[in-house]
Every structure is written in structure tokens, then in C-alpha cells.
Amino acid sequence: MISFVAMEDESDTPPMSAEESLSLIAQQNRKMRRALGGGPARILAAWAIAYLIGWGFTYFTVRSGSAVQGWIAGVVVTVLLVTAIAVTMFYGIRQSRGIRGRSRKIGSMYGWSWTIGFGGLWVINFSVMKAGALPPEQVSVLWAGSSLLVVGLLYLAGGMIFEDWMFYGLGGWMIVTAALSVLVGFPTLYLVLCLCGGGGFLLGSIVFFARELRR
């Protein structure tokens, strides 16, 4: 009797129109994106906080007359950057759930590009440091400029792969920031990383959050 009533109710339900079907699909997509973390907005927000606070604090400590010891700034930056990396990994893994086929393959290859790129960068930079060819201040310039350059290039690649002009523009901005940090040198490079780098991440986060709200 219960089964019969259930079947009768289903048969009485009118089929959805094409407009209703599309609306339902869009609604489910919005729910899925929110459940998976809201796209890259939170990742960019984590990096914005790391750059704005970390490099801003570092610039404050290295200025002449600052009473804060340099190693404290190093600890603060390290903690913030490691936290940003952890947030990136968390949301990257979370967003990859439920994705299959070609999209999963492209996402996986793009994710590994970051590991490969920074792995090679660390080997090169540590080799330069080991050779003792640069003074301590220039080592900071080397790491800041080369790291942000890799980030910018990978964002450019991501913009091309996913056909996203915002992602592509952010990559170009990070390359400009990397070049500017090297040109201004120590210690002003930290201010450039804070304002230009952190500001770029913050703007990107705001734009992606706005996109999610419109969807």
C-alpha cells in the first residue's frame, strides 16, 4: 500500500521544464562549489595574509633602529608561509574530490607543476648559497625574486589552461612584483612583497569571492 502511494505520487509529479532543470543544475553546482571550498578565493586569502603580515613585519624589523630581532621576523614569516601552504594543500585536495576524467588529469598535472617548479628552484638557490657567492642581503633578494617569479609563471600557465583572465593577470602582476623586488633591493624588497605581492593576492581573493557570490 505504501509502495503504491509513493508510485502514484511520483506519477502525478509534472516533469520539470528546461528552465527549471537548468536552474536546479546551477543550484546544485553552487552547493558543490561551496562544499568544496569556494574555489581559489580562500587559498589566495591565505597567501594575502602571509605576505601582508609576514613581509610587512619583516620590513619593520630590518629597518635601522628597529628593536625587534631579525630571527623573530624569520619565525613569523615561516609560520605564516607554512600555514598558507597547508591551506593550499587542504583546499586543493578538497576541490579535487568527485572530479574524474580529463579535468582530474589536468588538475593533477598542474598541481604537480608547483612541486616540480619549487623543487628545482630550491636546489638551484641552495647551491648558490652553498657556493658563498652572495652576501646575506643578496640571498634574500635571490629567494624573494626567484620564488615569486615561479609563482607568476605558474599562475600564467593556470590562466591559459583554465582560460581564466583573472588568474593570468595575477600571474603577470606577480612577475612584475618579483622584478620590482629585485630592482629595489634590500631591505625595500620586503615592502614591495608586502604591498604589491600581498595586495595582488588580496585583490585576487576578493574578485574570486565576488564571482562565487554571483553564481
What does this structure look like?
The protein is mainly α. It has one domain (38-214). It has 8 helices and no strands. The radius of gyration is 23 Å and the shape is globular.
Q: Mind sketching the topology for me?
A:
Layout: H1 2-12, H2 18-35, H3 41-62, H4 70-96, H5 101-131, H6 136-162, H7 165-184, H8 188-214
Helix pairs in contact: 3-4, 3-8, 5-6, 6-7, 7-8
Shape: globular
* Structural class by sheet pairing and helices: mainly alpha
Give the strand tally.
0
Poorly predicted spans: 1-11
In DSSP terms (H or I, runs of 4 or more residues), the helix count works out at: 8
Q: What fraction of the residues are assigned to beta strands by DSSP?
A: under 5%
Rg measurement, Å: 23 Å
Biggest sheet statistics: none
In a nutshell, what does this entry contain?
The chain is an all-alpha fold and 215 residues long. The chain is built from 8 helices and no strands.
Which keywords apply here?
mainly alpha, 215 residues
